[in-house]
Amino acid sequence: MASRFSSLSKSNTELLHKELRANYGSCSEIELDRLYHEFKSEHERLKVFLDLQRQDEDKRKDILNKLRVAQLEIKREERAAYSSMSTLQRLGSIFSTPKQLSVEHDDAKRKVSELHSQYMNLKNDRYSTEVAKRKKIYHVLKVLSELREEIKNKRVRSLANASIGKARSTSSSTKRKHISQTREVIACPYCECQFETVDMVLDHIYPIAKGGLDTRENTVLVCKQCNMRKSDKTLMVFCNQMRLDHSKVFDRLLKMGKGI
User: Fold this and answer.
1) Are 21 and 120 members of one domain?
2) How far apart are CA 69 and CA 172, in angstroms?
3) CA 66 – CA 110 distance, rounded (Å)
4) DSSP state of 216
5) 139, 158, 188: which is the final residue of a domain?
6) Where are the alpha helices (DSSP H) in the chain?
7) How many CB atoms within 10 Å of residue 62?
8) pLDDT value of position 118
């Protein structure tokens, strides 16, 4: 995961977004809202790991700079020491550390060794998994935001169409799709009475007159009597007026995959 989401090219980003759209494109508006807030919360929770990763990066850079300075200091000391040696002493330094370097050279080497050890301890990215997960969630949030915005735009268009009487133009085809995928006899989700599917009518759970969408998630087959009584009322108002247990009605619709 770390390698996949640490850095994405434009083409890979498009493929990822296409994959995410396939996963979440069929979700209802309520489901999208719930998922968005869940992922948003997780994205914020993982921010601490991004901050810790950046702190480690800053420490690595600082230690690496100190390490390079220490290594240069060793080289300067060696050059200065060797320049003061006689030819015989230089030949002897090939087989053993010259006395001129013993104290300073050992101290410098210990410093380099300590800095190198500190650098290696921070070299491995301890938070790569969490940071990569946060980056993936960023893309999920982006796609969910786009899907939510598209539904919002559909509602605006639907409300505009309702005002000029065009919103129900696709309802007949939507009803045919419902009937083709439903048993011959079903219960009305509102009153629970049994009816033949062909005798039922299509109801918009959230009324078109109030901006409801002509989609599978917002439409359901109901009996003609409930449809007439509900008219352009919201589901909660209809349930209260008909003294229906709205929580049970909501549960039945949710089990059918409808947006409430």
Assistant:
1) yes
2) 78
3) 13
4) G
5) 139
6) 2-6, 10-24, 29-45, 47-83, 87-93, 102-123, 128-163, 171-180, 224-230, 235-241, 246-255
7) 13
8) 79
147 lies in a domain?
no
Q: Which domain holds residue 35?
A: 2-139
* Of the candidates 189, 154, 181, the residue with the CA atom closest to the CA atom of residue 260: 189
* Residue 228 token pair: 């007439």
Q: Residue 101: what pLDDT?
A: 58
Q: Which of 257, 227, 259 minimizes the C-alpha distance to 242?
A: 227
Boundary residue ending a domain (123, 139, 155): 139
* SS3 of residue 203 by DSSP: strand
Assess if residue 44 is contained within a domain: yes
Between CA 83 and CA 10 the distance in angstroms is 57
Question: Are the C-beta atoms of 33 and 147 separated by less than 8 Å?
Answer: no
Residues 88, 206 within the same domain:
no
Q: CA torsion 175→177→183→186, rounded to 10°? A: -30
CA proximity to 130, closest of 138, 120, 118, 122? 138
How is residue 29 written in tokens? 């508006």
Say yes or no: 120 and 208 in one domain. no
Buried b (16+ CB within 10 A) or exposed e, 93-115: beeeebebbeeebeebeebbeeb
Q: What is the pLDDT of residues 57-100, one digit of tens each?
A: 888 888 888 888 888 877 777 776 666 665 545 555 554 555 55
* 8 found inside a domain: yes
Q: In total, how many domains does the chain have?
A: 2
Instruction: Decide if pLDDT at 169 tops 70.
Output: no
Domain assignment of residue 83, yes or no: yes
Cα–Cα distance, 36 to 142 (Å, whole number): 9
Single-letter amino acid, residue 157: R
